[in-house]
């Protein structure tokens, strides 16, 4: 009994010490960056992407004459080529190789039959009609062999005119059917751009409307006019298309572009940096910092314009919203501003 009575005070003392240490532990403080909510103009601008292409009627196609396998791609999409320059080398597919062998054999047989008919005609043993029949058979065999067009050494598809290679999506090893367009050559001249947009946005765009475009890899921004809207949805992207004319831009066919389309009237209201807007299962909110404490505030976002978003409800002008570090915050957490020595 004496042993336990000695240990109990020590246990109580240790418990008190742990409680004191826990009580003395500092509250967590997060380091964040903030920006003010501002009262200003916002517009319903949509950013979309697309690429330049030759205007209708300015393309010439390179077509596989028979079932073939892509051997070598010498001029990928976007390559400027001269007339007669090699673009793609095709190899005969197994089926075409068999057909080509049979066609070559048929040509030899038909030529031999024509030569025999000519000899017999000279000897008066066959009529002129027999000779013409043999001649027609030889011509048919030659045409069939030429139509295959892919011999043992392959077939080189060359640019029929100077321009830019477009839509060359096949890669070496791909098998293509007879009549497949392998690529197209866009002749120099005015270009148009195809911009992919949400179908709902396409319904709000009209010919003649001015939009801004800029090459994705950098370059001058241009104002161009919409020349057409195709509301038909692409089965792959599920997007519609907006077309603009791009005359004298210095861009070649196949240049990726970024477009800014205005689909609504400009309005005045509270805007914040888009980086401040957070989402939790469809709930939109921001953290507002006041007196060194971050408070979670539900908001109703509106239109976006560039890197800012309109806030329809929940904020007032000059509220300090967290733009960096918000994802690690909890409601009511103390914060310190990045670069500051103490909480504000």
How would you describe what is shown here?
The chain is an alpha+beta fold and 344 residues long. The protein is 22% helix and 41% strand. It contains four helices and 24 strands. The protein has a six-stranded antiparallel beta barrel with strand order 3-12-15-14-13-16. A hairpin with a 2-residue loop joins β19 and β20 (293-298). α2 (94-122) packs antiparallel against α3.
Structure described in brief:
The chain is of the alpha+beta class and 344 residues long.
Topology:
Elements: H1 2-24, E1 29-36, E2 38-42, E3 45-54, E4 59-63, E5 68-73, E6 80-81, E7 86-92, H2 94-122, H3 128-148, E8 155-158, E9 163-166, E10 175-176, E11 181-186, E12 191-197, H4 199-202, E13 210-215, E14 222-230, E15 240-246, E16 256-262, E17 267-273, E18 278-280, E19 283-290, E20 293-298, E21 300-305, E22 308-313, E23 320-324, E24 334-337
Parallel strand pairs: 1-24
Antiparallel strand pairs: 1-23, 2-17, 3-12, 3-16, 4-11, 5-7, 5-10, 6-9, 7-8, 9-11, 12-15, 13-14, 13-16, 14-15, 17-22, 18-19, 19-20, 21-22
Helix pairs in contact: 2-3
Query: With helices defined by DSSP (H or I, 4 residues minimum), what is the helix count?
Result: 4
Structural class: alpha+beta
* Pattern of helices and strands: HEEEEEEEHHEEEEEHEEEEEEEEEEEE
Give the overall shape, derived from the CA principal axes. Answer: elongated
**Overall pLDDT:** 81
The end-to-end span amounts to 58 Å
Low-confidence stretches: 1-7
What fraction strand? 35-45%
What's the number of extended β-strand segments?
Answer: 24
Strand order of the largest sheet: 3-12-15-14-13-16
Whole-angstrom Rg: 37 Å
The portion of residues assigned to helices is 10-25%
What about the largest sheet?
6 strands, antiparallel, barrel
């Amino acid at each position: 009994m004496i042993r336990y009575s000695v240990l109990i005070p020590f246990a109580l003392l240790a418990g008190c010490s742990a409680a004191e240490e826990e009580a003395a532990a500092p509250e967590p403080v997060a380091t964040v960056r903030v920006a003010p909510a501002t009262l200003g103009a916002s517009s319903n601008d949509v950013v979309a992407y697309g690429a330049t292409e030759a205007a209708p009627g300015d393309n010439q196609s390179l077509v596989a004459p028979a079932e073939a396998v892509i051997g070598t791609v010498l001029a990928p999409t976007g390559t400027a080529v001269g007339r007669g320059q090699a673009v793609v080398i095709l190899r005969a597919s197994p089926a075409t190789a068999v057909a080509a062998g049979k066609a070559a054999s048929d040509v030899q047989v038909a030529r031999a039959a024509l030569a025999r008919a000519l000899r017999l005609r000279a000897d008066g043993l066959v009529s002129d009609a027999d000779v013409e029949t043999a001649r027609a058979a030889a011509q048919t065999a030659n045409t069939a062999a030429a139509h295959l067009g892919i011999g043992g050494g392959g077939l080189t598809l060359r640019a029929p005119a100077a321009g830019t290679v477009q839509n060359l999506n096949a890669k070496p090893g791909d098998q293509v059917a007879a009549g497949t367009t392998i690529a197209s050559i866009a002749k120099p001249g005015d270009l148009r751009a195809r911009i992919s947009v949400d179908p709902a946005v396409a319904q709000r765009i009209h010919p003649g409307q001015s939009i801004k475009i800029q090459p994705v890899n950098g370059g001058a921004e241009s104002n161009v006019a919409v020349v057409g809207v195709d509301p038909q949805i692409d089965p792959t992207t599920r997007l519609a298309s907006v077309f603009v004319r791009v005359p004298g831009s210095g861009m070649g066919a196949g240049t990726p572009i970024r477009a800014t389309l205005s689909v609504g009237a400009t309005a005045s209201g509270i805007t914040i940096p888009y980086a401040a807007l957070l989402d939790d299962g469809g709930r939109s909110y921001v953290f507002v910092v006041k007196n060194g404490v971050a408070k979670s505030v539900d908001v109703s976002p509106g239109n976006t314009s560039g890197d800012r978003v309109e806030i329809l409800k929940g904020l007032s002008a000059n509220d300090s919203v967290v733009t960096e570090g918000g994802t690690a915050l909890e409601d009511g957490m103390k914060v310190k501003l990045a670069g500051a020595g103490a909480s504000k």
